[in-house]
Amino acid sequence: MAKKDAKKDAKERTAEDGKKQSQSAQLRDLLRIRGGKRVDLSSYDPADTPAGPADKAAGLAAIAQMGERLADLQERLYAASAAGDRRRLLLVLQGMDTSGKGGTVKHVIGLFNPAGCRITAFKAPTPDERKHPFLWRVVKATPEPGQIGIFDRSHYEDVLIARVHELVPRPVLDQRYGEINSFEQVLAEDGTTVVKVFLHISYEEQRRRLLARLDNPKKHWKFALSDIEERALWPDYQRAYEIALKRCSTKVAPWYLVPSDRKWYRNWAISKLLLEHLEALDPQYPKVDLDVEECRVRLLRLP
Fold first, then answer.
1. β-pair partners for 176
2. Model pLDDT for residues 149-192, shown as the tens digit of each residue
3. Which of 60, 118, 203, 254 sits most deeply, having the most CB atoms within 10 A of its CB?
């Protein structure tokens, strides 16, 4: 009996140690998609909460707690650019309809000073944009030094929608993955930290969210018949995402898969990812050659 109890205790300690290690690990290591390897989205539970707080209440409290630190790091990043620091951060948000791209912008980016953010929501290309290479409009939207840029959808639409709806010949489509990787490599070399997040929701959760929009007259403006038509292509989109995640998760610009059936976890995870990347940058306020006391005296002399 004693041996059984000892084995049980050892097993519980091992499980507890594993849980602690998971919680202490960098979230970006846990959620990162390893490029070059086959990606099977059905193997990821959209309702999972890897390394997350215990529940929604704890998650909301943790987000609020991160807010002050995120704001401080953003201010330091912005201030450093005044002294020539070219670093900036770009958050790329991709996911199926209702996965929470807009919700992320509202709840997570709201923790930052809007003056230091550049948010771009990519819609269907305009006739003028179609005259240019597919990355043309994206290059114009990248953040300036010191800024945090947010892409609500992105250049990946041109290998997702384009694949599902067969908008371009397959050789052209296949070439685009390499062009995207080269583009992101250039961004990284110029001081941009690229954080790409795939918001992973389930087929059932999307149905619930679409029905919720139909049930709420204030949300009707967010609904279109095309939402139903695109939902019918769910398997094709899942395959298109699997290919993009495999081919475009690189060392300088990896993809992170965030389970997004639970909105509070989605917001916590993205806040945490941003915090980890900004802490790694560790921007500093620039040193200024300023005689503070002299300036104080001169200021006080003025009427």
1. none
2. 999 999 999 999 999 999 999 999 999 999 999 999 999 999 99
3. 254
Tell me which residue of 207, 249, 215 sits closest to 96, measured CA to CA.
207
Q: Report whether pLDDT(91) > 50.
A: yes
pTM assigned to the model: 0.89
Q: Going by C-beta distance under 8 Å and a sequence separation of 6 or more, which residues neighbour residue 199?
A: 93, 94, 95, 96, 99, 100, 101, 104, 258, 260, 266
Name the residue with tokens 């003028």: 128
Which residue carries 């900004």 as its tokens? 278
How far apart (Å, rounded) are the C-alpha atoms in residues 279 and 266?
Answer: 20
Please, what is the end-to-end C-alpha distance for the chain in angstroms? 87
User: How far, in Å, CA of 18 to CA of 22, rounded?
Assistant: 6
Residue labelled with tokens 């929470």: 100
Burial class of 273 by CB neighbour count within 10 A (0 to 12, 13 to 18, 19+): buried
- Hey, how many other C-beta atoms are within 10 angstroms of the C-beta on 16? 10
Q: Which residues of 231-256 are buried (b: 16+ CB within 10 A; e: fewer)?
A: beeeeebbebbbbbbbbbbbeebbbb
Q: Virtual CA dihedral for 183, 71, 256, 56, nearest 10 degrees? A: -160
Would the pLDDT of 247 be above 70?
Answer: yes
pLDDT of residue 5: 52
Mean pLDDT of 234-239: 98
Whether 195 has a pLDDT exceeding 80, the answer reads: yes
Contacts (Cβ under 8 Å, ≥6 apart) of 179: 134, 135
Average pLDDT, the chain: 92
pLDDT at 21: 41
